[in-house]
Amino acid sequence: MAELLRSLQDSQLVARFQRRCGLFPAPEDDPRDDGAGLAEGAARAPGADHRSTANGKDAGAPANGLLRAAAPQLVMYIGQVAKDILKWPRPFSPPVVKLEKRVIAEYGMPSTHAMAATAISFTLLISTMDRYQYPFALGLAMAVTFSALVCLSRLYTGMHTVLDVLGGILITAVLIVLTYPAWTLIDRLGSASPLFPVCAIVVPFFLCYNYPVSEFYSPTRADTTTIVAAGAGVTTGFWINHFFQLVADPTEALPVIQHIPPLTAGMLVLGLTKFMVGIVLILLVRQVVQNLSLQVLYSWFKVVTRNKEARRRLEIEVPYKFVTYTSVGICATTVVPMLHRFLGLL
């Protein structure tokens, strides 16, 4: 088993996959300079300390879906923390060609892209198979295909070993299996409790603020805060919709079995219109909330506004990121649908 794990972690395996896909090192590349700089050299040394970054991302109570909205948030946070605990380096270059320079010197195990893709695709499949009429085999094939394409893209870009990807898939599968029996109960308790949004916001903020400390700055904490905050905002937004009855509950007995309508030109135009209206509002909210939160934090901690480095301080970075992207999540799930309804787009 140990030999198998070592072979799956071998950078040569990733390099061979890249060559099969037609990706080769540039002839002028100096093999002694792989673009990772000092940080990757430290990653190869035993005991090196550096950080990782992930870039970024119903049954019972189908109209609510609180837990399904939080699933990517949960797996991404666990994946990010696992990277900083395991501290396994990304594939080495050479022989691997690395296409994403931003995260070239950061930890790789597990692949949070693989975790997010698996969580999103399979929770969507599980949540819709009892509500809509479609061939289960087709839904399963689409979920597997989406997850596989994301996982293979992480090998193609040289960002992860095969073991990183498989580890991410396995962790997500275990989380889904362990939490699935409680999905319905959590949805019902969450939608009925007026204290739910407090837990949905305070707990994620606490986790982000107490993220593992690094000896030097890394964008990992900021990326994790963005992901977790957006998930907290979306989850809170679903609770607001249900608790204040901003969306109509199904009139039929649950689960509601529906046919997926065929895609028409009119539906495509309507969808694009709704998307443009929503994205403009979301970008506006993001910019306004970000500027206001930074101004308040700069004033509170007596920081010069022009000091861009101040954004990296824990007491500024985490609060402004969390407030900004929680607001974005709430806006996307509550304000945008209300605007669509006002404009007659629903």
Q: How is this structure best described in words?
A:
With 346 residues, the chain is mostly helical. It has a domain at 12-17 and 47-194. The chain contains 12 helices and 2 strands. The chain has helices at 2-8, 11-20, 37-44, 66-86, 112-128, 136-156, 162-179, 183-192, 196-209, 220-243, 265-300, 314-342, and strands at residues 132-133, 258-259. Helix 4 (66-86) packs antiparallel against helix 5 (112-128) and helix 11 (265-300) runs antiparallel to helix 12 (314-342). Mean pLDDT is 77; it is low at 30-64.
Key terms:
single chain; two-stranded parallel sheet; mainly alpha; 346 residues
Structure at a glance:
This protein is an all-alpha fold and 346 residues long. 62% of the residues lie in helices and 1% in strands.
